[in-house]
Design goal:
Length: 489
């Protein structure tokens, strides 16, 4: 509707300008034509009358000539005729307001016309026509006529033009408004509705605009665009499903790799309770213990069996494939769980792992299993970095930090939970530190690393609404910081 209103206003404005110009030029032209007609009428009356008066002056005398002038003056009320002398100062002389060259032109036998605009009722037109007398004196006829009739005609013309202009404007406005509604407003509203439907995701409802104009062509193009978007959306869904499946497979592969790494260390953890179970079983079997001692051995066997089940259960839970399921829990508890998986292997390799939790009550909305995978990858990398130097120390800390989210252009500082894993190993060179989160990028020897651990870990952190930061110096060590959104307790 706004476009129709604007077009109507501009259309009417253009008509007003054209009609105003036409009216002004028409009035000016009519005024000029009216003045020209008045001059012709004066000359047409004065010239024959001047000849007649000249002859009457010579044949019948001055008195008869003046009587003839008075009689002619009474013949037409619009035009006043007066006898004047052009060369003497008498009451019957040329008007003082007349141009200075009037007398000289009359002396040369030329007629003169001029307009006195200072008089009331729009001024008068004066015409002087010389009369041949045969003597030295120069006589002339003065014809004067008021412009009242001209003004009345002009006013009537203005009224007629104004009335015609108003009628044309009203008719044009009605035509423009109806045309705008039919050919602009309704198609544009339909196009807007289609655009909003596309914005809502409705790509199936077609837009029907009949005709062959530009708006109809735009509607057909929008229908074609909707079809293409629907097709693209379908392909995108398939690609997204395939990508999610591939990502889950990559994460599962990384988990299985970590399980393989943990298995060697867990073998020692399982060996001790198995030896205890075997020894206690043989004691009972050979009747070496009886009564309360036999029951105590059975209790010990049960405790060690439960310990084995717990260790195997943790390993199976870690290796299980599952989607992201977050819940509010204490971050320190999850870090402790990951540390328990890695610590036996680290101690066997001569790497000490020490945890410091400045605030054990920090809560985050996390998926414990997947977050354990992130921490396990980082702890294993830290252990390998220290192992290359023959041993070392890995420090884990949990604390609250303030950060600006890396995707926020002008964000404010917000509170996050930071899990820092630092080692005093070989460090990471500047040449490769920008590539460590890329899939399949690794600096380890063939068979020792798949290049998926850090990439998968970074993806899991981003799904939790956080990210991973890294700082490293060659031969001094590396510190990874996992940033997670903090939740109130």
């Amino acid at each position: 509707m706004r476009l129709t209103f604007k077009i109507t206003v501009f259309f009417i404005g253009g008509i007003c300008l054209v009609m105003a110009w036409h009216g002004m030029t028409n009035v000016e032209r009519e005024t000029e034509l009216f003045e020209s007609q008045m001059r012709r009428d004066h000359y047409a009356i004065a010239q024959p009358l001047a000849v007649m008066i000249g002859q009457a002056w010579g044949d019948f005398g001055e008195g008869f000539a003046h009587e003839l002038v008075r009689s002619s003056n009474e013949a037409d009320e619009r035009i006043r005729i007066r006898w004047v002398w052009a060369d003497v100062e008498t009451p019957e002389r040329i008007r003082p307001e007349a141009p200075e060259e009037t007398g000289s032109k009359l002396a040369r036998g030329k007629a003169v016309s001029w307009i006195d605009g200072d008089q009331i009722h729009g001024g008068r037109l004066y015409t002087y026509v010389p009369v041949v007398l045969g003597g030295e004196r120069i006589g002339a006829l003065e014809l004067s006529e008021s412009f009242e009739r001209q003004q009345a005609y002009v006013e009537d013309s203005k009224l007629r033009i104004a009335t015609t202009t108003i009628l044309i404007i009203l008719l044009a406005a009605a035509i423009a408004w109806v045309t705008g509604l039919l050919f602009i407003a309704r198609p544009v509203e339909a196009l807007i509705g289609k655009a909003r439907a596309i914005g809502r995701g409705d790509l199936e409802t077609p837009l029907e605009l009949r005709g062959h104009d530009e708006l109809s062509q735009l509607g057909r193009e929008m229908n074609l665009m909707s079809d293409q978007l629907a097709s693209t959306r379908g392909r995108l869904r398939e690609e997204t499903s395939a990508r999610i499946a591939a990502l889950q497979q990559l994460r599962h592969a990384d988990r299985l790799k970590t399980v393989g790494t943990l298995s060697a260390g867990l073998a020692h953890e399982l060996g001790t309770p198995l030896n205890v179970i075997s020894m206690r079983t043989k004691m009972i079997e050979h009747a070496e213990v009886e009564g309360d001692k036999a029951r105590a051995c059975a209790a010990i066997i049960g405790e060690q069996t439960e310990r084995i089940s717990r260790i195997i259960g943790q390993l199976m839970d870690f290796a299980r494939v599952r989607s992201l399921r977050t819940e509010e829990m204490k971050v320190t508890a999850v870090v402790t769980q990951a540390l328990e998986l890695i610590k036996p292997i680290a101690e066997k390799k001569g790497v000490q792992m020490r945890m410091e939790a400045r605030d054990t009550e920090l809560v985050g909305e996390i998926d414990a299993d997947q977050f354990v995978q992130v921490l396990t990858n980082l702890l294993v990398n830290a252990m390998h970095a220290c192992e290359e130097q023959g041993g070392g120390q890995v420090e884990i800390s949990v604390e609250e930090v303030e950060r600006i989210h890396p995707e926020a252009e002008q964000g404010d500082l917000e509170r996050y939970v930071a899990v820092k894993i630092g080692d005093d190993g070989v460090g990471i060179s500047r040449e490769v530190i920008d590539q460590i989160f890329e899939p399949f990028f690794t600096t380890k020897d063939v068979g020792q690393g798949s290049g998926l651990g850090l990439s998968v870990s970074y993806g899991i952190a981003r799904e939790h609404g956080g990210w991973i930061e890294v700082e490293s110096r060659e031969e001094e060590g590396t510190e990874f910081t996992v940033i997670l959104p903090r939740k109130e307790e």
